[in-house]
Amino acid sequence: MKDVHLLKEALPYLRRHRRKTMVIKLGGELAANADVLKSLAQDVSLLAHVNIRVIVVHGGGPQATKLSKLLGLEPKMVQGRRVTDEATLAVAKMVFGGQINVDILSALRAQGVKAVGLSGVDGDILQAVRRPPTEMTDDETGETQVVDFGHVGDVTDVDTSLLRLLVENGYVPVISSLGSDDEGNILNINADTVASVIAQDLQAHRLISLTSAPGVLRDADDPDSLISELTTSGARSTIQDGGIRGGMIPKVTTLVEAVENGVEAAVILPGTTKSAVLLELFTDSGVGTLIRPGDV
Questions:
Q1: Long-range contacts of 62-66 (CB under 8 A, 24+ apart)
Q2: Residue 9 burial (CB count, 10 A)
Q3: Helix, strand or coil for residue 151?
Q4: What is the chain's mean pLDDT, rounded?
Q5: What is the mean pLDDT of residues 175-184?
Q6: pLDDT of residue 276 exceeding 70
Q7: 20 to 30 A Cα–Cα from 231, which one of 13, 65, 122, 244?
Q8: Phi, psi of 231 (to 5 degrees)
Q9: DSSP letters along 79-93, please?
Q10: Contact 100, 166 (CB under 8 A)
């Protein structure tokens, strides 16, 4: 009887989400976890089989760091952003466009999902320019320095026509966070940014960010202090007040920007929670932190 109740609870959400587009961003630390990948693939399989259109965007920072060290390269990070020299770019291409992308495709195939591996270079999905030297301030010391991020790109334009063609024909695109400029130079682009701009261009129903955190917490040291819902203005105020700190700031900011630019809602989910995507989309209580439009 409990299973029947769950099905009845899910029914109105199935109607609401049917034929809608979901962009799911998967962090690299989660992509390295076989159990997480299997759970995500099962969730995506169910979504695809009930006619919900899914696009997966993935990062790969931990894997790139691991391979860099194996090759004798010391990764350089500034405020959570990777400085990408020629050698690091070669690592990013191997890890993002190769290892991780194929691992996700394999997990999806095992669950009966027709998936296609892409990068932002394919079909000119992402047009970008090399980031100019940027003045950065250290949050702890307050010192500023000008940082040359190397082959790191900032998105200037998005073309999702290829993605629309794929999802309309039953495929799940899996996109690594690489793009290129007009001269064909490959650029490393932040995966949260990639997911956000693609969701905006598609006017997606949901932008879902799977992270190793449970969501936005009132107290970073208390996992039970989850904030279940924020408006866009509330999220920006929480960042300014210091309630959202560290690496969560850029993640929340990209989600807020997506919602402010046409995405219906965004959500941060605990990627290690089994079936987190299904629990968020098809139950009354949901999980994680939902970000919706609003000024309150």
A1: 62/28, 62/29, 62/32, 63/28, 63/31, 63/32, 63/95, 63/99, 63/100, 64/28, 64/88, 64/91, 64/92, 64/95, 64/96
A2: 13
A3: coil
A4: 88
A5: 93
A6: yes
A7: 13
A8: -85, 165
A9: TTEE-B-HHHHHHHH
A10: no
* Separation CA 205–CA 44 (nearest Å): 15
Residue count of the chain, please give it: 296
Among residues 45, 46, 55, 38, the alpha carbon closest in space to that of 10 is found at: 46
CA pair distance 236, 220, nearest whole angstrom? 17
The CA angle 113-57-84, to the nearest 5 degrees, is 140
Residue whose entry in the numeric block shows the structure tokens 């139950």: 283
Q: Give the pair of three-digit tokens for residue 127.
A: 């047009």
Over residues 271-287, mean pLDDT = 88
Q: For the chain, which domains are there?
A: 2-292 (3.40.1160.10)
pTM equals 0.91
Token representation of residue 291: 């970000």
Is residue 118 within 8 A of residue 176, CB to CB? The reply is yes
The CA dihedral of 215, 219, 220, 223, to the nearest 10 degrees, is: -60
- Whole-angstrom distance, CA of residue 23 vs CA of residue 247: 21
> How open is the CA angle 164-273-234, to the nearest 5 degrees?
70
Strands 21-26 and 265-270: unpaired
Whether 60 contacts 100, CB under 8 Å: yes
Cβ-contact 15, 40 below 8 angstroms? no
Q: What is the four-CA torsion angle of 128, 129, 135, 139, rounded to 10 degrees?
A: 20
Decide: 87 and 69 in contact? Cβ < 8 Å.
no
Structure tokens at 6: 């769950």
> Tell me: the pLDDT tens digits for 105-127?
999 999 999 999 999 999 999 99
Q: What tokens appear for 92 in the block? A: 């990013």
Residue 97 has φ and ψ, to the nearest 5°, of -80, -15
